[in-house]
Design a protein that fits this description.
The complex is a heterodimer of chains A (113) and B (111). Chain A is mainly β and 113 residues long. In chain A, 0% of the residues lie in helices and 50% in strands. Chain A is built from no helices and eleven strands. In chain A, strand 7 and strand 8 form a beta hairpin. In chain A, 35% of the residues are buried. Helices cover 0% and strands 53% of the residues of chain B. The model of chain B has no long low-confidence stretch (mean pLDDT 94). Classes of the chains: A mainly beta (113), B mainly beta (111). Chains A and B meet through strand 4 and strand 5 of A and strand 10 of B.
Amino acid sequence: GAGVSQSPSNKVTEKGKDVELRCDPISGHTALYWYRQSLGQGLEFLIYFQGNSAPDKSGLPSDRFSAERTGGSVSTLTIQRTQQEDSAVYLCASSQGSGNTIYFGEGSWLTVV
Amino acid sequence: RKEVEQDPGPFNVPEGATVAFNCTYSNSASQSFFWYRQDCRKEPKLLMSVYSSGNEDGRFTAQLNRASQYISLLIRDSKLSDSATYLCVVNEGNGYNKLIFGAGTRLAVHP
């Protein structure tokens, strides 16, 4: 069956450019999460969506980061004016309800040069 | 201080060995606890939940001590396929999944 799908799988961008990362959750999953994993580090929580609203966006590292979700399905994470420290894997996850097991996508590997 | 702390390893063990990983967490209000497994350049996958009473899944045994804020994972009879990074995970969300991950402990099982 279809899992969490993320695109692009790899992205190299120049410092200062904006990037958009897309997440397509498992069908029917109402909760969606974005995490970031820097090289050799643990996953860092960024934001949680329930439906189209984001009750917890406490992990977004700066105002250059934003995310939205539409139709209770696809989500986009946008990073404006990228910096080299933004280089990381951005992982999306979804769950059927807000407290159920979460399933991760394979991630979008972002490199800022 | 990190919210979830683990020994980074690596743990290099022969096949058949028993290996134990430990983890401590700082938020005493944490609601639930897990071990995830992450293979190189792959996404994390749930290995097992952790309960205060202790729980076992085949060769894997997990234990939680709420008083000490300590979580453990024991792997018996290690297999080559167990080689991976094991992530200690704490849920700090109130009614939702706000998973806080440790940096992981690397395990390498050799023949």
